[in-house]
Design a protein that fits this description.
The protein has 415 residues and is mainly α. Helix 7 runs antiparallel to helix 8 and helix 11 packs antiparallel against helix 12. The longest helix has 35 residues. The protein starts with a helix and ends with a helix.
Length: 415
């Protein structure tokens, strides 16, 4: 009773007392150290290991491509399949790590099942190794980007179900289950990945139908599901390291999500141009393909506005630079370059050429590769702190990544 009277007196004399206290409580809550964020660390470490392996495979494949007489233990076609699968696999490691890191922060509660997250990691590693070894020996389904044989498709599906279940159960026990778009988009993106993947696990008697479902994974995974998850991760990252207002981030995130869904789904039509589908896909694919750079511009704008609020901690700055690189290559490699080559009149001449390969490298590595590196770098530095940062090495590394990616794209266009 006495405490209640004191609070009432303080509230009447100092009308801003309660508001200040609420702000203080909110600030303390944001700084809370959630133990289950540590689940992300092994994902970040395996991102670096898988990226290194992928780089070695890519360099060996490039060498054999230029000098075909060089003896190699792995056939070029099989090595290419390994390269393609690793190019998707290692960025996904980083994105999953980022989800497990920012999920407790955004939900303001611990991850539902740390054990399930570790089991998921183990199954991912087994599936990844199995895919690499089996493809190296020529065991393949023969479908580009979906070369992995059936047992590994099932393993990937189980991983997606485990991940989605863990994320959704975490969100359900959060008090922010519906009012934070970061959480909603992560959950929706994961569930969408499951439904898009299942039809592509089967062979269809019609090659047209088979190709349609293949593009559901190859295109819609990357340009819709993963794009939604990536947008949520970037938003959570900006909220975490800058002083930008949540409402500003959320506003643009909602706008971006609507555009990604509309443009991503219907822009798949530009992959349907030459597989025997009706001619109206020329119009649909062309119009919505032209819309795809718009969500990327929104990401760029949001990131730019956030930086104006300041980044006080040194080891947050380098990951932020990598985020900017991700946004830049997303805009140039995926957005603008993709827009040009998907115009039907141009695509008639570029389809199936190395120009398409250049777009794939600039878009996939440039967008999700840089983002995976950024969040992995950020997550590892969060545990070790500023003392291990070498500014010169960090600068040279980021510079070489950009130069290397530019040279890859430029060389493939010339080829």
């Amino acid at each position: 009773m006495i405490k209640w009277l004191i609070k009432k007196i303080k509230a009447s004399i100092f009308p801003n007392y309660k508001k200040k206290k609420e702000k203080k409580d909110e600030k303390n809550e944001e700084k809370k150290d959630y133990l289950t964020k540590r689940i992300a660390l092994p994902y970040f470490l395996f991102t670096v290991i898988a990226m290194t392996t992928h780089s070695m495979v890519a360099n060996l494949g490039s060498l054999e491509y230029i000098f075909p007489d060089i003896p190699s233990p792995i056939d070029f076609a099989d090595g290419r399949a390994v390269h393609l699968n690793l190019s998707i696999f290692w960025p996904i490691f980083g994105l999953i790590g980022a989800v497990f890191y920012f999920l407790p922060e955004e939900a303001e509660t611990e991850t539902f099942s740390p054990l399930l997250a570790i089991g998921q990691l183990g199954l991912m590693l087994l599936a990844g190794l199995g895919i690499i070894i089996s493809l190296s020996f020529g065991f393949t389904q023969g479908r580009e980007y979906l070369e992995a044989i059936a047992p590994f498709d099932i393993a990937i599906l189980i991983v997606l179900v485990m991940f989605s279940y863990n994320v959704i159960r975490t969100i359900i026990k959060s008090k922010h289950k519906t009012n934070r778009p970061t959480l909603v988009l992560i959950a929706f993106g994961l569930v969408l990945m499951i439904f898009l993947f299942i039809p592509a696990m089967f062979f269809w008697s019609s090659i047209i139908v088979d190709e349609i479902f293949r593009w559901w994974v190859v295109h819609l995974w990357v340009e819709t599901s993963m794009q939604l998850i990536a947008a949520a991760i970037i938003s959570a990252f900006l909220i975490y390291i800058t002083s930008v207002k949540r409402q500003l981030i959320y506003y643009w995130l909602y706008v971006e999500a609507i555009l990604v869904m509309a443009a991503g789904f219907f822009a798949t039509g530009h992959h349907y141009l030459w597989i025997g589908t009706p001619s109206y896909w020329f119009t649909i694919g062309g119009i919505f393909g032209a819309m795809q750079p718009i969500p990327i511009l929104i990401i760029a704008y949001t990131a730019f506005k956030s930086v104006g609020t300041g980044i006080p901690v040194m080891h947050h700055r380098w990951p932020m630079y990598l985020i900017f690189n991700s946004v830049f290559w997303n805009l140039i490699g995926a957005g603008m370059f993709g827009l040009v080559i998907t115009i039907p009149a141009i695509n008639a001449y570029t389809h199936g050429t190395l120009i398409t390969s250049a777009h794939a490298h600039l878009a996939l590595f440039g967008t999700f590769g840089f983002l995976a590196i950024a969040v992995s770098y950020f997550g590892i530095l969060e545990w070790v702190g500023d003392k291990y940062i070498n500014k010169l090495y960090s600068f040279i590394s980021i510079l070489l990544l950009n130069v290397g990616l530019f040279m890859m794209g430029f060389s493939l266009i010339l080829a």
